[in-house]
Design goal:
This is Flavo protein. The chain has 183 residues and is an alpha/beta fold. 37% of the residues lie in helices and 22% in strands.
Length: 183
């Protein structure tokens, strides 16, 4: 059975990351499929070996559509090994702030997901995305003086996290919360 990578994107960056994760996993554990949550047939969730689910992050939270999706499909999602990724732009902040913010955001989102999904998320990571100032929500515009526009996707970091998913699925190491650490 294939591995499913599902995503909810705000401006396209999360889709890029999700497709890359699916491709990288498929190289090691084929097959893997990648789908947007909005067009995915939820009746097929039980047809997958494991699920990797991700969302863009706005205001330190997953997009509302992603949260609605996981709440509505909780039983099917939690019946499989479940991995989660978030795509944001903490690295767009000044260096003294970015690492602490990324750690806080990762913990905050992970804890929220664990509550929503009965503690079934094996691993979670916040990955870099692309930030255009015109895409920043109006209530966040004041932070634009601190934030630098740019593409913060780190393909090596994304591959490393996808590798950790494969290792966990192959049972080569016991998955743990600190299995993957962002730098």
């Amino acid at each position: 059975m294939p591995i499913l990578v599902l995503y909810c994107t705000g401006h396209g960056s999360t889709a890029d990351v999700a497709k890359h994760i699916a491709s990288h996993i498929a190289e090691q554990m084929p097959p893997a499929e990648c789908h947007d949550m909005h067009s995915f047939d939820v009746s097929t969730l039980n047809d997958y070996t494991a699920i990797v689910i991700g969302s863009a992050v706005h205001g330190a939270h997953w997009l509302p559509d992603a949260t609605t999706f996981i709440t509505a499909n909780k039983a099917a999602l939690t019946s499989k090994p479940l991995f989660a990724f978030s795509v944001g732009a903490p690295k767009a902040l000044p260096k003294p702030i970015s690492h602490r913010w990324q750690k806080w955001e990762d913990d905050h989102i992970y804890n929220n997901l664990q509550k929503l999904l009965d503690g079934r998320v094996v691993m979670h990571v916040v990955l870099g995305g692309k930030l255009d100032k015109e895409d920043v929500h109006c209530c966040s515009r004041w932070t634009c003086g601190l934030i630098k526009e740019g593409d913060y996707k780190d393909w090596e970091e994304i591959d490393k996290w996808a590798d950790s998913v494969v290792i966990a699925l192959k049972g080569q190491e016991s998955p743990r919360r600190d299995f993957f650490t962002c730098t």
